[in-house]
Amino acid sequence: MPYRWTTEPDEQVQELRLWPHNSLPQHGMAAFVLATFTLILIPALPLLGSVVLWGLLPFLMLAVWGVYFALRRNRRARQIIEVLTLDDDETHLTRTEANGDVQTWDCNRYWTQVTKHEDKGPVPNYITLKGKGREVEIGAFLSEEERLALFDDLQRALRRPNSAA
Fold it and tell me: What parts of the chain have a pLDDT lower than 70?
């Protein structure tokens, strides 16, 4: 699950950290780019020693660079962290975007409402927190099953202010 509850044993503060799932680690990306390079060069082997190879080589290298660039860009775009902090009185949500922008939201814990929009959001089972006249999304990057589990966890955590979820 790409989220984790952490609660300090001596404190009454609960913290929920959410992050997008990254299925391809850094070494896996390197292996994939190397495999792509190798597979692209296999059809070029019969062309070794001919002028045609030099005509094709820039396009083959451009294709490998395109795969590398796309994987790197995707990895950077998924560096999102959301931190929900629940203490006795306050609910505080901080979202750090991939580019470093930080968005915050807070509300009195008693008035915080968690809502699941089954089909009205940009993704199925869209989850929002509402309070202080504002409604903010949480965990939109999670899978549908993970959002359902998160919704249950949030309802439980907001219902019981002095215990971990």
Answer: 1, 8-11, 160-165
